[in-house]
Amino acid sequence: MIIDEKQRSAPSKRASMEEYLSPSVRAIKPSGIRRFFDLASGRKDIITLGVGEPDFVTPWHVREACVYALEMGKTQYTSNAGTPELREEIAYYLHNQFSVAYDPAKEVLVTVGGSEAIDLALRALIAPGDEILVPEPCYISYSPITSLSGGVPVGVETFAKDDFKLTAESLRAAITPKSKVLILCYPSNPTGGIMTAEDWLPIAKVVEEHDLIVISDEIYAELTYGTKHVSFAAMPGMKDRTILVSGFSKSFAMTGWRIGYACGHPELIAAMLKIHQYTVMCASNMAQVAALEALRNGMEEKNRMVESYNQRRRLVVKGFREIGLACHEPQGAFYAFPSIAGLGLTSEEFATGLLNEQKVAAVPGDVFGLGGEGHLRCSYATSVSQLTEAIERMGLYVRKLKGD
Amino acid sequence: MDGRKMQILELLKEDARRSADLIATMIDAPADEVKQAIAEMEQDHIIVKYATVVNWSKVEDEKVTALIEVQITPERGRGFEGIAERIYLYPEVKSVYLMSGAYDLLVEVQGKTLKDVASFVSNKLSPIDAVLSTKTFFILKKYKQDGIIFEEHEDDHRLLVSP
């Protein structure tokens, strides 16, 4: 059947379908990443530094565990909160790796990716008009999800000079009597910034003073270089104020499986579970089996992948600096966030030109909110040969802009 | 072996054409030290050769390869060494392993045709005095060799740009 879009009209007196849409959905802008994706897709010979996921396929033993689960007929719903085995293993893992202890029966919820956990946490917490503090530049979904729940996102700018760490000073400056929740994402997408225990202490103090709840998105926790990730929930007095969100996507190269989790105070988790059971019932059964296998037997492969990201991280940071782009040292995730300041272009113009002239795709920094303009997010989860080629092409582009 | 040399070996194993400078950047070590370490490993025959892995089945004059289980009587005083050497010095022999179990040496032999390999076994290998018996198995297809998958199906399926 061929549908003529021009012939289509709203099935009522309203001028367009859009008028049916909820005002909060209408108010949300489509993500800037999506816009850039449309620009890049369909083109040939593009080297992409725009990908926000590992370049490894999920390790075979994990995939095989899922295949076996299917053979064994594990095709049913699981308990709403996730299988008891997986929740137990997650609790054990978090205690073992990051020294935070959760009761698997009441304090762990398995979700459809970390994204669902963030959505659930915000929906469970926000009353209309509540202000949600979001350190930026940050992952693109916090503000829209906040708005959908009737909350008001309040950006807190972080800066390259501070290695994109959140400072107590700028956090304090953004707090009002309406502030309720602080969303943290360290190691950071898009900046690669991390927070150490010393960095967290003053933040924890502000959180305590202003009685905030924290949603700590620690999806990149395993990907730190040279220093071990410190969970905000492990800071003194913070565990009960923090909903720890993480998942398997980045650490175990399992993005498409959509398995994440949230851990926190039993009353908060119970509230999130209530939404979860009415909206998605449970995360995919066989994907939970795979996640269990990843936690039980996947550490060696994971370490190998982390080492490989680290090698490529050094390569791109050095490469960007050599072609004249200032680049702070990213210590986590798999992104470098070089500055393009002084070249006379906005991030958007720079990225568009780079794509058109040199066929290298990277995401303009402004899509990540305050402080992102003047930067470019470059994922180094791509092969060494592609990275080398991309840096060379970017060098040509930068030289041209500088008029050399 | 120190950790740095191990890292260098692993990066070279993935791609032998990587320069010392690139490796130095990737493992965060001074380029001179990496060059020095590589030179040392070449000298010590830890790095034996920078060879190319070829998928011969894609080349027109395809080669025939067989794995041969060989039972031998060890020599007094020298064990298997002398006989192994007599076997591996033939250019047709691509690899020789001393094995535990029902036979002693596993010998990989390559020839242009099936007949070549068969004649090598009957004219060169079997007549060696110490050789008690041989069993020849022809390789029909190589799926993976030395950690390298020949027909890689796991292409990059990722979206070009994603959050």
TrEMBL record, chain B:
Keywords from the named record: DNA-binding, Transcription, Transcription regulation
Transmembrane residue ranges: none
Gene3D superfamilies: 3.30.70.920, Winged helix-like DNA-binding domain superfamily/Winged helix DNA-binding domain
Cross-referenced SMART domains: HTH_ASNC
MF-aspect GO terms: sequence-specific DNA binding
Domain (HTH asnC-type) ranges: 1-81
Protein name as it appears in the record: Lrp/AsnC family transcriptional regulator
Organism per entry: Paenibacillus sacheonensis
Organism taxonomic ancestry: Bacteria, Bacillati, Bacillota, Bacilli, Bacillales
